[in-house]
């Protein structure tokens, strides 16, 4: 809020000469401009003052109109835009028709140019304002292409990154395993440059850009972080005197071993442990999709236990559909609900099996958003809630709510193609502000039949309307009855112990 | 909902239009068809349609026999309710209309018995002060009490009436308040009225019959008997008054949103974060009214897969899709246009976001007499999450949604919707192998709700039974 207001408060130096009729207001404005920009407190200006300032600014802009178009300030925050538009309603008509960012530019170009880092700070503030809830999590927009990737990035990593960002490879374990396999390819094609050792160079100079690229496609999962930490530790410990070929061979073997030990074998132990928990007549409820839950259910099914499954799912990823389909193909009796029907689904369930993205050290479960709802409802129905989780997903991180740490997903994923098309008949009823705004871009859009993409534009254009989407939530430990890991079945309070065990050995 | 797109599609507005020209009986059939096909759905359209139809039915009713009128309304009501039992509002409106008929009759009967009361035995002052208008309905509140108390009353008077037959013979007074006038004033008023209109037959002749009716008779039958006699005897404009009452009911339907919205400022303070769900006119108007004075933030769960299109529509344009050809002229701005930031979240995010939310405002489909409510699917998990986070839950509901039904079987109240909304039928393999279920409503128990706001004000859930008792007659609860 404070940045743009301060900008407005700073009058162009030329203004006093051109607008001598209102000295008191200008004196005031100058006083404000004199204040250090860091004080940050948003100044409430009376409408009259704003009007005067605007008049002054307008004149100043006219004076320097021939100086050529400056680049438009991108990304005026929605709230600011609304405010400014409201202001401009109070001024003259031509003031209103002018695109809003221009005004800011005028005042900025006239005032002594602010240092670049302040501008950066402004942009950051804008972002924070945009996300009232997860503002601290909006780091950079997710990368959806290979453009701009560092030249060091291995082609296998490039394609993996795209698979991450488009959710083709989704799920904590799958992402970790895929990453390790790709890293094997990276290591295989790696040659230590002359003058460095593999242990020194590989981690910092070769793997880091790969990891950075993957992170730009989608933030790293906890398990990926754990695996990377392990890999780096291992590489650093390689004796510099080992010949490169042997070191690489060792490394590849070790990665295979890691996947086998921490995922394949762990999964087997977990499902051997969990499958007997399913007895005849059980109705197992699960949320979204987890590979380990799927394995457990199939193993129990193969062992001849007759039970049925309820899959609860949610938009926009609909991961549960895949799980339901796979289970149904194995002739399991499957019912499918969306999360809105979760309270009905838990009524007929007898046990709840959940997958995890991570288990936190305070015993909380960090998993696909909606898991907390399902476990809360199950807990209220006194159903046992079992979490199946490999110890590689354990983390020393702690969180009390789902807001401190989370992954923000692009908000345009919220509306699917079908839903957008359903909204199309609304077009004639859109409020004037939005339609007039699109008029600026092209009057033909008014007559042309709106397409599904336009719906997203409406949402974007509609100031104050935000679509919000995150990927995870944190389930309180008291909703969870048991965590089944390869180390055995434990209460959620034992998570930090197992985490220490699994990292120390 | 999809039918709303075409102006000629059958729905509430087409029904209201046809009602102007069609007589009552075909209109009943028409409404039944619409209800059965879910072409009219959700509480308000159902309520509006039922009230309009009731007005028509009463308007076309011939004769002045109250018992027959009650029977007629009841019979229409029963068919409407049977057509769509889960739209509880239909039954509510029918009961309200029945209540109106009885009230009109009771008022008149009340004049006859209570008027004489006023002359002799003064009503206890505190009773008259606290709830004067209740007294007549209280006597009939419980069938037991009714069966015994009233005849007893009149028999008491009976003994006294012999020496002052003059006073008891008086015309019906339409205003119930006059009958509770202080004892000193009552005889004067009564006698003045008596100057101008003398009743044809004596009122005491009728009262004993009621008293004499055998105890074996049900309260219902007793009541009907009494109604019949009363209406035959009294030269009151039964039809006119009932129709007036129905019009008042229509006004109530129209105004309930505004009345609820008028208290918004008492419940929303500055900089709150309010979570709501589904596309509800009542909630939107409530928030809009608060937005006039206060700044707050709204988090809106989109209620996929039922109302999400309407939710997005209401946020983008300020109106639901189905209502844009409806005569509703007072189009309102979307919340976003008045400067309220709105964050749309998928329903799965409710738990994640709840730790930032100050208040939950829920819309409802029906409120039940035990304080529980039936609302759009997802309401239960929202209310439960709010409870877990100690966030207060407010439910906005017009009194017309308040139902005298006790939820003995909750599943009976839940409607299951089109599974194609969850998984499109194009996905044939999936739909074939997997049971896709799509419950449309949730039952939210009373202990998850902190406050109900109706057009009468704010109430604790535990108090709702009292409002139910004020609005419905016991004899009408089973239609």
TrEMBL record, chain A:
Stretches with biased composition (Basic and acidic residues): 28-42, 49-60, 79-98, 437-446
InterPro entries given in the database record: IF-2B-related (IPR000649), IF_2B-like_C (IPR042529), NagB/RpiA_transferase-like (IPR037171)
Stretches the record annotates as Disordered: 1-123, 425-446
Xref: Gene3D superfamilies: Translation initiation factor eif-2b, domain 2 (3.40.50.10470)
Keywords: Cytoplasm, Initiation factor, Protein biosynthesis, Transferase
SUPFAM superfamilies noted in UniProt: NagB/RpiA/CoA transferase-like (SSF100950)
GO CC terms: cytosol
Keyword Magnesium tagged: no
Pfam family, one: IF-2B
Membership in a protein family: Belongs to the eIF-2B alpha/beta/delta subunits family.
Protein name per its UniProtKB record: Translation initiation factor eIF2B subunit delta
Organism name: Lentithecium fluviatile CBS 122367
TrEMBL record, chain B:
Pfam short name (any one): IF-2B
Keywords, comma-separated and alphabetical: Cytoplasm, Initiation factor, Protein biosynthesis
Keyword Cell inner membrane appears in the UniProt entry: no
GO molecular function: guanyl-nucleotide exchange factor activity; translation initiation factor activity
InterPro entries, A to Z: eIF2B_beta_subunit (IPR051855), IF-2B-related (IPR000649), IF_2B-like_C (IPR042529), NagB/RpiA_transferase-like (IPR037171)
Region feature (Disordered): 107-175
Coiled-coil parts of chain: none
Protein localization: Cytoplasm, Cytosol
The keyword Cytoplasm is assigned to this record: yes
Superkingdom assignment: Eukaryota
Polar residues composition-biased segments: 110-124, 132-142
Main location: cytoplasm
Gene Ontology CC: one annotated term: eukaryotic translation initiation factor 2B complex
Subunit structure: Component of the translation initiation factor 2B (eIF2B) complex which is a heterodecamer of two sets of five different subunits: alpha, beta, gamma, delta and epsilon. Subunits alpha, beta and delta comprise a regulatory subcomplex and subunits epsilon and gamma comprise a catalytic subcomplex. Within the complex, the hexameric regulatory complex resides at the center, with the two heterodimeric catalytic subcomplexes bound on opposite sides.
Family: Belongs to the eIF-2B alpha/beta/delta subunits family.
Protein name: Translation initiation factor eIF2B subunit beta
Organism: Lentithecium fluviatile CBS 122367
Lineage: Eukaryota, Fungi, Dikarya, Ascomycota, Pezizomycotina
């Amino acid at each position: 809020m404070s940045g743009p207001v301060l900008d407005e408060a700073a009058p162009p130096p030329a203004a006093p000469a051109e607008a001598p009729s209102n000295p008191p207001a200008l004196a005031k404005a100058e006083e404000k401009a004199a204040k250090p920009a860091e004080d940050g407190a948003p100044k409430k200006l009376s409408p009259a003052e704003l009007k005067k300032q605007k008049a002054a600014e307008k004149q100043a802009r006219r004076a320097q109109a021939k100086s050529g178009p400056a680049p438009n300030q991108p990304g005026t925050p929605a709230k600011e835009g609304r405010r400014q538009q409201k202001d401009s309603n109070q001024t003259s008509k031509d003031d209103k028709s002018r695109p809003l960012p221009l005004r800011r530019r005028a005042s900025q170009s006239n005032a002594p140019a602010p240092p670049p880092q302040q501008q950066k700070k402004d942009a950051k503030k804008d972002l924070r304002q945009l996300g009232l809830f997860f503002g601290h999590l909006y780091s950079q927009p997710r990368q959806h292409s290979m453009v701009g990737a560092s030249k060091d990035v291995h082609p296998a990593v490039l394609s993996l990154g795209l698979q991450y960002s488009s959710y083709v490879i989704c799920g904590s374990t799958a992402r970790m395993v895929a990453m390790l396999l790709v890293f094997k390819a990276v290591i295989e094609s790696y040659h230590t440059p002359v003058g460095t050792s593999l242990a020194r160079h590989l981690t910092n100079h070769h793997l880091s850009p790969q990891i950075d690229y993957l992170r730009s496609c989608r933030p790293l999962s906890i398990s990926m972080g754990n695996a990377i930490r392990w890999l780096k530790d291992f590489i650093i410990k390689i004796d510099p005197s080992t010949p490169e070929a042997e070191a690489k061979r060792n490394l590849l073997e070790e990665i295979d071993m890691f996947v086998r030990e921490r995922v394949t074998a762990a999964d087997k132990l977990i499902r051997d442990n969990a499958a007997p928990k399913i007895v005849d007549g059980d109705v197992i409820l699960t949320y979204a999709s987890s590979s380990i839950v799927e394995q457990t259910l199939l193993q129990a099914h193969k062992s001849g236990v007759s039970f049925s499954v309820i899959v609860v799912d949610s938009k926009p990823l609909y991961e549960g559909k895949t799980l339901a389909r796979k289970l149904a193909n194995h002739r399991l009796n499957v019912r499918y609900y969306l999360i809105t029907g979760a309270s009905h689904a838990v009524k007929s369930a007898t046990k709840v099996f959940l997958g995890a993205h991570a288990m936190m050290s305070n015993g909380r479960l960090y998993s696909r958003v909606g898991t907390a709802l399902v476990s809360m409802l199950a807990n209220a129905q006194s159903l046992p809630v079992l979490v199946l989780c490999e110890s590689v997903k354990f983390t020393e991180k702690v969180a009390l709510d789902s807001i401190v740490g989370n992954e923000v997903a692009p908000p345009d994923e919220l509306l699917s193609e079908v839903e957008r098309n359903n909204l199309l008949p609304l077009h004639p009823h859109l409020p004037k502000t939005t339609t007039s705004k699109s008029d600026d871009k092209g009057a033909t859009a008014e007559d042309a039949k709106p397409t599904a993409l336009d719906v997203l534009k409406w949402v974007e254009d509609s100031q104050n309307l935000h679509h919000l989407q995150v990927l995870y939530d944190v389930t309180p430990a008291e909703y969870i009855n048991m965590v089944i890991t390869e180390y055995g079945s434990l209460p959620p309070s034992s998570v930090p112990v197992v985490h220490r065990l699994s990292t120390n050995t | 909902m999809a039918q709303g797109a075409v102006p000629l599609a059958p729905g509430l507005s087409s029904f209201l239009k046809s009602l102007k020209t069609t007589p009552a009986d075909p209109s009943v059939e028409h409404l039944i068809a619409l209800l059965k096909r879910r072409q009219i759905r959700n509480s308000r359209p159902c309520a509006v349609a039922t009230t309009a139809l009731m007005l028509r039915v009463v308007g076309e009713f011939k004769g002045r026999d109250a018992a027959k009128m009650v029977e007629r309304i009841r019979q229409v009501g029963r068919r409407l309710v049977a057509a769509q039992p889960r739209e509880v509002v239909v039954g509510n409106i029918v009961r309200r209309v029945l209540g109106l008929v009885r009230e009109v009759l009771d008022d008149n009967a009340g004049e006859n018995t209570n008027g004489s009361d006023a002359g002799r035995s003064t009503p206890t002052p505190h009773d008259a002060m606290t709830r004067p208008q209740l007294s007549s309905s209280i006597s009939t509140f419980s069938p037991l009490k009714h069966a015994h108390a009233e005849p007893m009353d009149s028999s008491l008077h009976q003994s006294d009436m012999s020496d002052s037959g003059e006073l008891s013979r008086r015309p019906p007074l339409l205003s119930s308040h006059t009958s509770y006038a202080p004892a000193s004033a009552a005889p004067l008023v009564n006698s003045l009225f008596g100057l101008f209109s003398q009743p044809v037959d004596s009122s005491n002749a009728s009262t004993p019959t009621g008293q004499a009716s055998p105890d074996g008779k049900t309260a219902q039958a007793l009541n009907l008997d009494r109604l019949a006699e009363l209406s035959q005897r009294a030269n009151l404009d039964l039809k006119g008054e009932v129709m007036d009452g129905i019009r008042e009911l229509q006004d109530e339907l129209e105004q309930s949103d505004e009345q609820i919205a008028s208290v918004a400022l008492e419940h929303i303070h500055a900089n709150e974060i309010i979570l709501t769900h589904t596309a509800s006119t009542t909630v939107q108007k409530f928030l809009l009214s608060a937005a006039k004075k206060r700044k707050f933030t709204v988090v809106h769960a989109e209620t996929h897969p039922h109302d999400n299109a309407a939710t997005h529509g209401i946020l983008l344009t300020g109106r639901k899709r189905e209502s844009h050809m409806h005569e509703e002229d007072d189009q309102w701005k979307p919340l976003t246009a008045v400067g309220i930031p709105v964050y749309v979240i998928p329903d799965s995010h409710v738990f994640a976001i709840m730790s930032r939310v100050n208040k939950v405002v829920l819309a409802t489909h029906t409120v039940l007499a035990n304080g529980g409510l039936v609302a759009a699917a997802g309401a239960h998990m929202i209310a439960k999450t709010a409870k877990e986070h100690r966030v207060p839950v407010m439910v906005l509901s017009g009194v017309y949604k308040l139902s005298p039904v006790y939820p003995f079987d909750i599943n009976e109240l839940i409607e299951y919707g089109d599974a194609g909304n969850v998984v499109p039928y194009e996905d044939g393999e999936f739909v074939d192998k997997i049971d896709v279920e799509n419950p449309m409503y949730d039952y939210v128990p009373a202990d998850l709700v902190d406050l109900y706001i109706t057009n009468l004000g704010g109430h604790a859930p535990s108090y709702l039974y009292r409002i139910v008792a004020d609005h419905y007659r016991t004899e009408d609860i089973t239609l």
